[in-house]
Amino acid sequence: MKIALTDETGELDARYRARVKKIAGAVIRNLKVDRSSELSVTFIGDAAMRELNRSWRGIDRATDVLSFPQDGEGPVPLLGDIVISLDTTRRHALSYGNTFHEEIKKLIVHGILHLLGHDHKKKKEKEVMRGLEEELLEKIRGL
Predict the structure, then answer these.
(1) Distance (Å, rounded) from C-alpha 93 to C-alpha 116?
(2) Per-residue pLDDT tens over the stretch 32-73
(3) Three-state secondary structure along 103-119?
(4) What is the CA radius of gyration of the chain?
């Protein structure tokens, strides 16, 4: 699995970026995703996230994570792109009583599940997705 990680904010050091790649890789292995797939994770700030959210979802505010699934066609299956706002992540970690790192892990898991087609718009879908999130977070607890 190739995981491309970009920090457009410049806030995350190389060691932390490597740690995030390890987390994403562990989630993908636990979900038994094709090992030849590629994933992109990008960290941005609220201003850029607000623009993305407005452009793609018609919602004029920042959010914590957006997922952009790819078609998976071609010689290398593209899982998709996950974009995370570090500003919103910090606020959510504080309001939810989590560490910044725990919140990042939640968003990586959440984003990957969206790339694989999971959603939380309907009650049953939400229950399934939340259950998978909890299971995966337990499996990657020490990372």
Answers:
(1) 25
(2) 998 888 999 999 999 999 999 999 999 999 999 999 998 756
(3) HHHHHHHHHHHHHCCCC
(4) 14
- Three-class SS of residue 101? helix
DSSP class per residue in 13-62 = -HHHHHHHHHHHHHHHHHTT--TT-EEEEEEE-HHHHHHHHHHHH---S-
pLDDT tens for each residue of 91-119: 999 999 999 999 999 999 999 999 998 88
Give me the long-range contacts of 137-142 (CB less than 8 A, separation at least 24). Answer: 137/105, 137/106, 137/109, 139/26, 139/30, 140/23, 140/26, 140/27, 140/30, 140/105, 140/109
Rounded distance between C-alpha atoms, residue 42 and residue 31, angstroms? 21
Cα(9)–Cα(37) distance, rounded to whole angstroms?
A: 26
Q: What's the full length of the chain, in residues? A: 143
Structure tokens at 141: 């607890």
pLDDT in tens, 79-88: 999 999 999 9
Question: Is-contact 109 137, C-beta < 8 A?
Answer: yes
Neighbours of 4 (CB within 10 A): 11
Q: Give the other-Cβ count within 10 Å of 65's Cβ.
A: 22
